[in-house]
Amino acid sequence: MRLLDRSRTAISSILATSLVLCVTQASAQNPPGRAQGERPAPAPAGAAPAPAGAAQAPAGAAPAPAGAAPAAAAPAGAAPAAPGAATAAPAAPGATPGAPDPGTPPAGDAAAEAFVEPDPNVVTRDDLQGLVTDLENFKFQWQRERDLHTALSTRSLLVGGVIQARIGWTEQPVNTATSNDRKVTFDTGAATLTFNGILYKDYEEGRNLTYSVRFGASPQQASNNSFLNLLDAQLAYSVLPTLAPEDWVLQVTLGQQLLPFGLEVPASEELKPVITNAQFTTKLGLNRRDLGLIVRGDVLPQVDYGYNYRAPLFAYAIGIINGSGPNTPDDNSEKDIIGRLAFTVPSDYNSLLRQITLGGSAYIGWQNTFLKDEKKTLSGKGVKRRFGGDVYYNHYPIGVTYEFIYGQDDVTLGTTAEDPRKTRQTSLSHVATFFYNWGEQFLRGYRNQGRYDDWWPKTYQPFLRVDLFDPSTEVQENRVDVYTLGFNVFFAETTKFQLNINRRDDRTSTEGAKHEVLTQLQGAF
């Protein structure tokens, strides 16, 4: 939208400037009082100046030769010759009377000297009128195309989204209430639609007020229905200036949003390297969006303009949320607190220590507890705590990430209010990912190359992930281990192909370890 308006303004300015230059050139070439192609006749050498009070010769008339007798008076009743008119030359032998040769200059030495052919580079009035007409036609056509083929909004708007098409195979047949011996299935991993924009733009200091709305559907996580749910709905205001990369960042976000906990939880769908999420994100309820107020920022950034690199020494986030999940009001009288602090090792861009980040996260909250009876009777509330540490190292072409999560949850194991058997369960999770890249997609110099087609550099990324989750350390042999061998191909600007081979070992299952293969094509727009 803004690009069309700016292009229209720029083209109009160029045409208007061209019109002014043409008019100026025409005025310089043809001063007032002189006809097109006419130039003043020079006075003969040695000619005496006209006496005072003498009548001026008509414009364009040839001067009389020195010593010539005065011209005879015109006969009575004869019409005077037009100013600057040349005397007709005698017709050439064989020529049609009254049809002068257009390439022959007017007869007479003085008239021939005064005649000049029109300069083809001089702008005429007809040329100016044609330019004005073309400009009006262009303005009409531009406005028509904009009205017919451009979506309009009150404020700036950027529309985007993600589509994930997936094929899955499992070694052991899946049997549920609605499926029988299923091994291979096609499904949609996720489909999201995003609207981003600026509500207030501060041109002086960059203290902008932005908005973000995201809708999404994940059919394989629902029953037989697929609904487009509200994922993100937030307003963010930059408290500090944001025009220079050296500026510190302080942003306040209000609304429904991702939680700033660890590495994988705040990553959106299009940025996750593995097809399936880490186990702790879903089993500990951290992957859910929540409603609240979160302050994010960083301090002491290190900037390298040559490589377009910015790494703050400290990045932080702290907020207060409902703790009851997305699109849901708070279900108890307590508010949950979440926070994160990350430290990046200061180093040069070419140093091996570049992009080593150590982070820590904490979640302190409360949750309702329910009895184990058929009605799931509410029995009170208990603690919900999450603590995590993470290490991130991404120095092209290698990368390593590691997350450690420790959780505490109060639950009731009883079936009656008189004997709720309230207890505290402790969970533990380890997630490590090792990957290697080769290709040019993540090198800015290659991405900036101009090509005639929709060219984009390609990158290939094999990786290995180890995901261990123990839902209750008090119970023996209930850990679930998932090992993933994967391969990602980034073959377009916003498109990638993913292949995951999983080995899932559930200690509580009598069937033992099972294998599955997932392939996914993800495209963003």
Automatic annotation (TrEMBL):
Membrane in keyword set: no
InterPro entries: Porin_dom_sf (IPR023614)
Annotated keywords: Signal
Keyword Transmembrane helix in annotation: no
Stretch list, region Disordered: 29-111
Signal sequence annotation: 1-28
Protein name, UniProt field: Secreted protein
Species of origin: Sorangium cellulosum (strain So ce56) (Polyangium cellulosum (strain So ce56))
Upper lineage: Bacteria, Pseudomonadati, Myxococcota, Polyangia, Polyangiales
